[in-house]
Amino acid sequence: MFWRIFGNRYGAVAIGVLLLVLVFSPWGSGGKALCGGVEMRTTDTCEETRNGKTTVSSYDEEKRSQSLARYGFMAAGFLLVLGGATMIVVRAVRKPAAA
Fold first, then answer.
1. CA 93 – CA 98 distance, rounded (Å)
2. How many folded domains does the chain comprise?
3. Which range among 29-33, 36-40, 43-47 shows the weakest confidence by mean pLDDT?
4. What are phi and psi of 38, to 5 degrees?
């Protein structure tokens, strides 16, 4: 299923655009550090428990982590749009002209 979507040039463009919309949308954190969906202050710490293990992160660690994730999704979105659009153009140029 994965390759059917991402191997399809239109699917790659659609998913890339969706990623970019989500990164730049008001639904994102907007550069704020969030813990459990709640905005953190600079003096706060974030405690997350997964599989019985609790991790504690400072405001700066959360903000850095969320910024890196945002840039990663942005890069993936741009690459998907660029790759899909390139495949669309290449395929259109290579089509033989109707005689």
1. 13
2. 1
3. 29-33
4. -110, 135
pLDDT (tens digit per residue) in 46-81: 998 889 899 999 999 988 888 888 888 899 999 999
Phi, psi of 43 (to 5 degrees): -95, -5
Three-state DSSP string of the chain? CHHHHHCCHHHHHHHHHHHHHHHHCCCCCCCCCEECCEECCCCCEEEEEECCEEEEEEHHHHHHHHHHHHHHHHHHHHHHHHHHHHHHHHHHHHCCCCC
pTM of this prediction?
0.68
- Residue with the two structure tokens 């989500």: 22
In a domain, 99, yes or no: no
Q: Are 78 and 24 in contact (CB under 8 A)?
A: no
Domain of residue 48 covers 2-94
